[in-house]
Every structure is written in C-alpha cells, then in structure tokens.
Amino acid sequence: MSFGLASIIALMCICSKTIESLVSALCTIFNPLPGIAVLPLLMIWFGVGNGIMLALIVHGVLWPLTTNLLVGFRSIPTVYKEWAKNIGLSPVNSLLHVQIFSVMPYLVAGLRVGWGRAWRALIGAEMVFGMIGTVGGVGYYIYTNRAYANVTNVFSGVIVIIVIGILVEQAFRLLEKNTTVKWGMSDES
After folding, report:
1. In three state form, how does the secondary structure of 54-66 look?
2. Is 12 helix (H, G, I), strand (E, B) or coil?
3. What is the pTM of this model?
4. Comparing C-alpha atoms, which of 74, 23, 99, 11 is closest to residue 3?
5. pLDDT tens-digit profile of 15-32?
6. What would the pLDDT profile of 82-108 be if each residue is shown by its tens digit?
7. Which residues, in sequence order, are CB contacts of 16 under 8 Å at separation 6+?
8. Backbone angles phi, psi at 178, to 5 degrees
9. Sign of CA dihedral 132, 138, 143, 149
C-alpha cells in the first residue's frame, strides 16, 4: 500500500512542480517523525485494532520511500532524458523505459529504510496494545513475558525479531544483486 501511494505521489510530483514542492514540505515534516509519536492521534482516528497497525506501517514506509523516489527522479542524469527524446520516446515511454530504471537504487534504499521503520513501529505498537490486551504478535509476546520476568522467552522474542530482520535484509541484498548491481548501477554490496 505504501509503495503504491509513494509511486503515485512521485508521479504527481514529476508532473507538477507545485505538487512536488508541497510533497517535499510534507516529507520534511513527517519523515523524521517516529510512528510511536503519532500513535495517540492514530488511536483517536483508527481506534485500537488492525487499522492502527496498517496506519503505522504506512506512515513508517511512505515518507522515506517518497523522499528517496523524489531524490532519485531529481538525480536522473540529463543525458538519459535527452537520449530518450532523441530516439523518439514519448514522455510516458521515457518514464517507463528509462527513468524508472534510473531510480531503482533510490527505490531499494527507500524500501529498506521504510521497512526498518515500519518493523520497529509495529513491534512497539504490539507492546503498547498488548498492555491493553487487544493485539498480539512478537512485541506483545516480549511485553507479556517481561511482565512475568520470563527472561528466556523475552530473549527468544528478540531472537525472532533479529532472525526476521536478517531474512528481510538478505531479501533486499538479493533484490539489489538482481537489479542495481546486475545493471551496473551500484557496486556489489
């Protein structure tokens, strides 16, 4: 959902400098804002349940991804755009066949940062909502075992978070290897 929203916002910014200016201001405001800071507002708007979890994840991913996409589109070398014009590509085909591939390193970086922020927000929210007994998950598991001083289970919950983080990081490395590294857009990481 965040990926779709960020893509639509970035495309609107390409079409209009006014929208780009507004979105840049919003990204400047909301990108550094942690999900846990907006949690009370989200609780008022979405109540306590799955809607708030989705809102936290969208907030965590949307702003860094949008920021990275905007930087990526601004960083496309002029020669690429001129080349697309010279071979007769329409603006839409230039976007689809040249510009989107040019922003791939920025897209992957934005997804990586967004995922990390969303994951932390989700675990924190599970702990908060676990206190009131409405939502489960790894955060809830850690929180309840902490309340019962069950250190072994707390460590097992932390290890689960670490393992999931390592698996997702490996998935991002595979994505980079099969896109940006393969296309010669970045060095082997």
Report:
1. HHHHHHHHHHHHH
2. helix
3. 0.79
4. 11
5. 899 999 999 999 999 989
6. 999 999 999 889 888 888 888 888 888
7. none
8. -85, -5
9. positive
